[in-house]
Each structure stands twice: as structure tokens, then as C-alpha cells.
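Final report, closing paragraph on structural work. Over the funding period we assembled a curated collection of sequence-structure pairs, and we close with a single example.
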Amino acid sequence: MDAYLLDWVNLLLRWAHVIVAIAWIGSTWLTGFALFTVLYLYQASTFLIDKSVHAWSPAAAIAAALGFLVVFWFVYDAICRMFGQRSSGDRVVGALVAGFVVVASWLACQLFAGRAAFLLVGAMMATAMSANVFFWIIPGQRKVMAQMKAGLAVDPVHGQRAKQRSVHNTYFTLPVLVAMLSNHYGFLYAAPNNWLVLALLMLAGALIRHAFVARHKALVQARRVPWEYAAGGVFALLVVVVWLAPVAQSRSVQSAQAAQVKAVSFAEVRAVVAQRCVMCHNEQLASKNLQLHTPALIAQHAQQVYQQAVVLKLMPLNNARRSPMPSARCSGAGSRRALRRTERIDMVSWFDRPRSRSH
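Its predicted structure, as stored:
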């Protein structure tokens, strides 16, 4: 439980750090898309596709991922055009866009690997933010300046549209950031109903951002600061924290389960680690600064092996086995045979018997 709570502290501190950095430095869509292309599209079979979620070809997955970015922008833009200028238009647009984001989150998590799905939802919203600036905010400002220089009456629609899209970008910022940061935390994107986890995290971000917007407005108007929005965002975060918290089993349940699992020797587990893990965690190549090529190192990192391979089922990457081709190692290009259920059960038995972890 302590490690779990530490992960939450790590996530929230990273989120706050990036928010502050962007507030001062800014960000670009181009570099983000370049990273997404290199890490996810170029290596689609490894990072974009999870065949236990949806089995399809890399080309189809890449096309669908790019489609998310494009379709979200066109649907979002159409909603703003159709309803933005109507009575209570801001509320209608907000509700429709929020609903569309939730649907997109659900669909992404049904089609792509959890890590890629979370990142893709953040990327589609970031795409809309950049498009807002490129197609509406900057052009609107230029048109207003041109009309003023020509001595013409300024059309207020340009300012209204620019303000609308600027406000949307304000509310998109924190949800986008948490979606981007989430790929460091397997307990989020590997959770059951992970789409709902993502939706709640983004809701928390939007509520907290609204709290700051409302605070500024309240201070200008000398009114009470409505901190209840921030409280709502914190409550949404706490719901996720409690929901995903590991459940501690009673000693009697643990004893009963241990009695049903056959004793596993360290040699058996070491054979699995050698075939599944050492290809990426050895003296020459230590992914995540983790080495598992000796008995002492396996025993030292037993908790991490158990967490990644048994609890989260995130490793080995794409369930690859040792390939005779060096270039296939650690790229997911090796055999696609999944880590067998019996192998995971053996790891459970080994981890639950501390005395067997090193011999």
C-alpha cells in the first residue's frame, strides 16, 4: 500500500510540475506529434496494439489512431459552430464536448493498448487546442487588426469565437496533461474499466482548472471564491485513489491460497525470467535501470518483477520471448506467445514464499 500511495504522490507532483512549466514556457503540438509518431506509430505492433484488447494489423491501428486526431477536431469544431452562438451556448457546447471526450475515451480503450489509449485521448484534445489557435484565435486577431487599420467597424464575432476557443483551451490543459503523464503509471491504464479512470482524472483536472478561473473572476468582482469546484476535483481524484487501491487479503485467505499453489523452485522461476525478462534487463542493456541476469538481482528485484508481470501484467513487453535475432529483442518483434498462465502462477508461488526467492 505504501508503494501504491507513493506512486500517487509521484503522479500528482509530476502533474503539478508540468503545469507550472507550461505556464511559463509553453508547448508545441509538432514535437508532441513527432514523439507520438516515433514511439507509438512507428512501433505500432509493440506499443499501439494489445491483441488481448483488439487484434488488428499495425496499418489499421495507425489509421485509426490518426483518425482519432482528425475526427475529434472536426466534431468538436462543428459543435462549437452549431451551438456556440445560441442562448446558453457555452453550457451546451461544454456538455456535448465533455460527452464526446468520454465516448472517445471508452472507444480508445476498446481498440488500443491501455497506455496508447490514454495518450491518444490526450493527443486528440491537444490537437484541438493547437487547431483552435491556428484556425480561429490568430486569424481572428488578424482580421480585427486589419479592420481597425482600415477604419472599418470591427465585427464582434471574431472576438467572440477567439474567446470561446481560448476558454476551451484553458479547460483542456489539465486533462491533456494528466492523460500524457498517465503512461508512466500502469495501475491507471491497466485498471479494469480504464476508460472510466481516465474520464474521472480528466474531470478532476477540468474542475480544478475551473476553480482557478472562478477564483480570478470572484476576486475581480469582490465576491466569495467558489472553492467547491476544487473540492469536487479533489473528490474525483480520491474516488480513483480508493477505487484502484490494492485490497489486502487476510492471513487465513493467504494461507488457503498458498496451500493450493504448488511449491516452485527458484530454478523454475529463473528459467522464466531468463526467457522472458533478461533480454531487456541484463548487464549490457538495463531497461528502466533494472538488471535480472543473476540470482541475486532477481531476488533483489522480486517485488518489481511480481508487480509488473503478475499484478499489472505489463511485462514482458508484448509478452515477447527470447528471440535468436538480437534486433528483435526489446522491440516486441520476437515471438508473440503470451506469458502462460502457469508461468504467472509459478511467479505467485515463488513470490509468496520469501525463502524460495534466491535459491
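The chain has two domains: 2-244, 253-356. The chain is about 70% helix and 0% strand. We thank the funder for supporting this effort.
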